Amino acid sequence: CVASLMSIASDGGHILTADTEEDGRMDGTFDEKSGGSPRDAALDALVSILSGPDAAAQAVIDAGVLRLLPRMLRSHCTHAREQACDALASIAAGSEAQLQLVAASSMVTMVVALLSCDVFSVRKAAAMVVSSLLRRAEGEPDTAVDARASHLVGLGTMRALAELLEVTDAATQKLVLTT
Q1: Closest-CA residue to 128 (of 67, 87, 98)
Q2: What does DSSP assign to residue 30?
Q3: Can you tell me the distance from the alpha carbon of 175 to that of 77, in angstroms, rounded to the nearest whole number?
């Protein structure tokens, strides 16, 4: 089932072979008007599985979802960037090993960039990734969380989070203040 979803998600939209624009974003592979496509449904299903039990999330990770996410984070489509952030937040909220996969990836820098300069829904989803990265996994030493926090501060996360406090969305303000 997961393999089929990955096949649809990666080949159905030509995610892995799409050309990119000069700014690194994909050239319409994720099109705002394509909602409801089999690819979008497959990506939604994968993100949903990632938010489930650690074992189910690991099956999606093992199937290669992390290879799809950088392109989704660079997509022109708001929904794709939001899905990628939701996926990363779900993975980071999983086991210690899953959290470390996200924390050690170059996608953290991309997420912080989205946190700073994207539409509100993507910025909120990116804030969820940051929140998940700053949680302490079961059995994980506090020093690991401290190191992730220092890394995030170095990437400019604090300014972006502070700017999110200016929105009039109480749930987002609470998320930022508890992060």
Answers
A1: 87
A2: S
A3: 24
List beta partners, residue 20.
Answer: 26
Phi, psi of 12 (to 5 degrees): -60, -30
Query: Which residues lie below 8 Å from residue 100, measured CB to CB, with a gap of 6+?
Result: none
pTM for this predicted structure: 0.79
pLDDT digits (tens, 9 = 90+) for 11-36: 654 443 333 344 433 334 444 444 56
Read off the DSSP letter of residue 74: T
Tell me the three state secondary structure of residue 126: helix
More confident residue, 69 or 164: 69
Q: Which amino acid is at 62?
A: D
Q: 121 Cβ partners below 8 Å, 6+ apart?
A: 78, 82
